[in-house]
Amino acid sequence: MQVFEKLSEYRYEQLVFCHDKATGLRAIIAIHDTTLGPALGGCRMYPYATEDDAIVDALRLARGMTYKAAASGLNLGGGKSVIIGDPKADKSEALFRSLGRYVETLGGRYIVAEDVGISTTDIHYVHIETSHVVGMDVTYGGSGDPSPFTALGVLQGMRACAEEIFGTASLEGRTVAVQGLGHVGYHLCRLLHEEDARLIVTDVQADAVERVAREFGAKAVEPDEVMTIPCDVFAPCALGAVLNDASIPKLRCRIVAGSANNVLLEARHGEALAERGILYAPDYVINAGGLINVADELEGYDERRATRRVLRIEERIRQIIAISKRDSVPTNVAADTLALERIAAISSMERLHTGHPYGQQRRRRETI
Ligand code: NAD
């Protein structure tokens, strides 16, 4: 791979290779953009087939975090780290402490958190070596499970979409079809039930369906029915890529608003939804509640403040709908525009004050 060519494609700032023969650590830290603040992003452990696969994954995920933080109003940049290894076989205290020491060398330019294949215990080992960590256990001053906050953000985004389509943000009496009743899906159903919405639900795990049916009076359907059933809102909270050439023509909803990541198989499926008159709440904005919550740890975690910030996802989705109309583009494109416009505005301000495109690393106070 031509690494510098790859970095220049999307203006990555830095790619760090971490190697520690003693612990077996082979990790890559990708920092995409720190215009808005230090790069925050999870660490993923995965047995990548090749080193190129690991680099590509770290770069792709880091860039995604830049957009997510920017569009969510956070004063953070985008970064991500990957450890090449099998999370079932290759973990040790020494390995994660070694990663922690590498994170520490970056002096706060990169803040690490949990991601796929990483547990709270692993993050605790990282934290022994560096303070540039979020997503710690509650007993260590962390913010705990992000899922209820992600669900709250989804509810708020759904309200903004309902206002656009039905003229009122209220979800009372609206029919919402929820796909996936795991950590986020369950809490979303709870919140929708409190709003007096009608629930149609599905999951591949029967006990998850039974629980939501019993607690919230939801109507259960088979997993292959949930995307074709008539409803006001389809809420994907399970898998990515569920919106594709095969599924979009069959949808019978007015709004798609859920927590699942990468819900569009390809970016062009955002256009396909718009052509069918279906309003899509972009995944990385509507599901940012967990990130907003965990980022609050950087200021000394305060649940009430974090909740207030998560509630503002409603306003972010409204802004995206406005940009989508202004530029005549689908909402997934409008979300990127929102992120890029904010970075561009701050970037020119930074140049003015420091003469440096990325400014200086300094602690910023949250402004949203
Ligand atoms: P989870 O694993 O707890 O829940 C997923 C649920 O989907 C499980 O109950 C699973 O049985 C079900 N499922 C799997 N395949 C299905 C299918 N074909 N049809 C119906 N149900 C199916 O995950 P989660 O933490 O609730 O996250 C859900 C989605 O939201 C994921 O895409 C995740 O990346 C995204 N997300 C989660 C958070 C968070 O705070 N947890 C934050 C941002 C994004």
Overall pLDDT metric: 94
How many β-strands, per DSSP? 11
Strand order of the largest sheet: 8-7-6-9-10-11
Tally of domains? 2
Low-confidence stretches are 355-363
- Strand and helix order: HEEEHEHEHHEHEHEEEHEHHHHH
CATH superfamily of the largest domain: NAD(P)-binding Rossmann-like Domain
* CATH topology-level name of the largest domain: Rossmann fold
Work out the radius of gyration: 21 Å
Which oligomeric state applies? Answer: single chain
Helicity, as a percent range: 40-55%
Give every kind of bound small molecule, once each: nicotinamide-adenine-dinucleotide
Largest sheet: 6 strands, parallel
- Which second-level CATH architecture of the largest domain applies? 3-Layer(aba) Sandwich
The portion of residues forming beta strands comes to: 15-25%
Count every helix, treating DSSP H or I runs of 4 or more residues as helices.
13
In angstroms, what separates the terminal alpha carbons?
A: 40 Å
What is the CATH class designation of the largest domain? Alpha Beta
Notable features of this structure?
368 residues; alpha/beta; Rossmann fold; 2 domains; 6-stranded parallel β-sheet; 5-stranded mixed β-sheet; 44% helix; globular; binds nicotinamide-adenine-dinucleotide
Task: Please describe what this structure looks like.
The protein has helices at 3-9, 51-71, 93-105, 120-129, 147-166, 183-194, 206-216, 268-275, 283-286, 289-295, 303-311, 313-327, 331-354; strands at 14-20, 25-33, 39-46, 77-84, 110-114, 175-179, 198-202, 219-220, 233-236, 255-256, 279-280. Strand 7 (198-202), helix 7 and strand 8 (219-220) form a beta-alpha-beta unit. Residues 355-363 have low confidence and may be disordered. Helix 12 crosses helix 13. It has 2 domains: 3-62 and 77-140, Leucine Dehydrogenase, chain A, domain 1 (Rossmann fold); 147-336, NAD(P)-binding Rossmann-like Domain (Rossmann fold, 3-Layer(aba) Sandwich). By secondary structure, the chain is α/β, with parallel strands linked by helices. It has a 6-stranded parallel β-sheet with strand order 8-7-6-9-10-11, with helices on both faces. Strands 1-2-4-3-5 form a 5-stranded mixed β-sheet, sandwiched between helices. The structure holds nicotinamide-adenine-dinucleotide. Residues 146-147, 150, 179-185, 202-205, 208, 223, 237-239, 259-261, 287, 290 line the site of nicotinamide-adenine-dinucleotide (NAD). Nicotinamide-adenine-dinucleotide (NAD) binds at residues 146-147, 150, 179-185, 202-205, 208, 223, 237-239, 259-261, 287, 290.
